[in-house]
Design goal:
19 strands; globular; six-stranded antiparallel sheet; single chain; alpha+beta; six-stranded mixed sheet; 444 residues
Length: 444
């Protein structure tokens, strides 16, 4: 089934709503096409295209809600799934946290659909991968990577008159390059809405250079070091702060934003005053959907300003309970940076460690947001403004809150992809003092 236009989605959802006999009814539909190429050992191993559409209907009788899903859109099937959701609602216990569906909303026009990405051909996809493989082969290295692109739509309608529609495109690319003897490893990742911005050749050159430069890694003692975190490394730590901006967990004493007695750190200075984090669905470099899954309009929102926690995310239920605005969770996060390149940050570092990537992130203490994980794919020792030699990987124990209090400098912002969540961010490389490495790791 092809991607539905706005008019087609409206007509289909209107039909589904007409079948409803419940007190309230809400219908979500979405789908699209996604394609990928995976390669390893310098050869393509798999490629494929997935086309899918699904419709989810929620029926409510008072506070009793039932949900059913279907991917057949003929009239008989649509009416059948409506009846099924109503049957489930009648059988369900009351949900004390159910909030009545929203009425009509106003949304700004989205910016996250790029025709060039939607029009990508199998040959274009193969050519992008071929450029990556050529770099690795010429460098006498071995590459493994994954390229995916997608075009899709989502729409929702409810019995109270709400209707929302959006289309989106995206592409993510990641590549790990190893030396032929397996002793050196490098990594690079890129993500965009516009595939014409994707340069797989340059990304692979960076990964290959890191691989060949990290072959003779030396062991240095664990401890506290000044580190420069590349954006991909910073992303997996910073996003834990973003994921923790939920007001309910803070109010209930279950997060790093909680204070004794039920208070929160909202309005308090939590990190260095140079830290400014916000979301903006219409940012040209990180556009996102103008509405959330429950139909609330997204808007530009400041989360941390000059180190101060300015906003928390609220579900509609918790916002109603607390008599505050229901601020939805953001689709994209942007952190303001400085003017220096990564190379300039290195040049200004007397002694430190350059970290390409962090992975295998695990929680140690939710109250302090203490995390542990490992470096990988290119870790280097810096002295007198130059990379002196590669070093063995470390395990770290660090809180991103403490990390952002130990901020020394921020570089230029760039778009990156989190290896943990696959989310896209706009982040700068970060120079941090007293980053805690607790032990060595023999992994490459």
């Amino acid at each position: 089934m092809p991607i539905l236009t706005k008019d087609e989605a409206y007509a289909l959802l209107k039909k589904v709503i007409s079948y409803s006999k419940a007190d309230e009814c809400e219908v979500n539909i979405g789908g699209g096409d996604s394609a990928n190429i995976r390669y390893a050992r310098n050869s393509v191993s798999t490629s494929g295209v997935i086309s899918q559409n699904s419709l989810v209907i929620s029926s409510a009788y008072g506070k009793k809600v039932g949900t059913a899903t279907i991917n057949e859109f003929d009239d008989a099937s649509l009416e059948k799934v409506v009846r099924r959701s109503e049957e489930l609602a009648q059988l369900a216990p009351e949900n004390p946290e159910f909030v009545s569906f929203l009425g009509p909303q106003t949304y700004q026009e989205a910016k996250n659909f790029v025709p060039a990405t939607a029009a990508i051909t199998p040959k274009m996809r193969a050519d992008l991968v071929a450029q990556s493989l050529q770099v690795a082969k010429e460098g006498k290295a071995v590459a493994a990577g994954f390229l995916e692109d997608s075009v899709g739509y989502s729409a929702m309608m409810n019995s109270k008159g709400l209707f929302a529609y959006n289309t989106a495109t995206g592409t993510n690319f990641s590549v790990t390059v190893r030396t032929e003897d397996g002793k050196g490893s490098g990594y690079a990742t890129r993500g965009y809405n516009d595939i014409t911005k994707l340069d797989t050749k340059t990304a692979t050159q960076i990964a290959t250079q890191k691989a060949t430069s990290s072959v003779t890694a030396k062991a240095i003692e664990p401890g506290k070091y000044t580190v420069i975190l590349e954006p991909a490394a910073a992303a997996v730590l910073l996003e834990r702060i973003i994921f923790g901006l939920d007001a309910r967990t803070a109010d209930e004493g279950r997060s790093f934003l909680s204070k004794p007695g039920g208070a929160t750190r909202l309005g308090e200075k939590m990190v260095d005053e140079r830290v400014n984090i916000y979301s903006d669905p219409w940012n040209a470099d990180l556009p996102t959907s103008p509405w959330t899954g429950d139909g609330r309009p997204q808007e530009k929102t400041t989360w941390i300003e000059k180190g101060v926690v300015k906003n928390l995310t609220y579900s509609r239920y918790w916002a109603e309970k607390k008599s505050v605005k229901a601020t939805p969770f953001p689709d994209g996060i942007i952190m303001e940076g400085g003017t220096k390149s990564l190379e300039e940050l290195i040049k200004g570092t007397k002694k430190g460690v350059l970290v390409t990537r962090l992975w295998y992130i695990r929680d140690v203490d939710p109250q302090s947001l203490l995390l542990t994980g490992l470096t990988r794919d290119g870790t280097f020792y810096i002295e007198n403004g130059k990379i002196q030699y590669p070093i063995k990987n470390f395990r770290f124990n660090e809180s991103p809150v403490i990390m952002l209090n130990n901020l020394e400098e921020l570089g230029k912002v760039e778009r990156t992809v989190s290896v943990e969540s696959n989310a896209n961010y706009l982040l700068p490389p970060m120079k941090i003092r007293d980053f805690t490495f607790t032990s060595l790791s023999d992994a490459v």
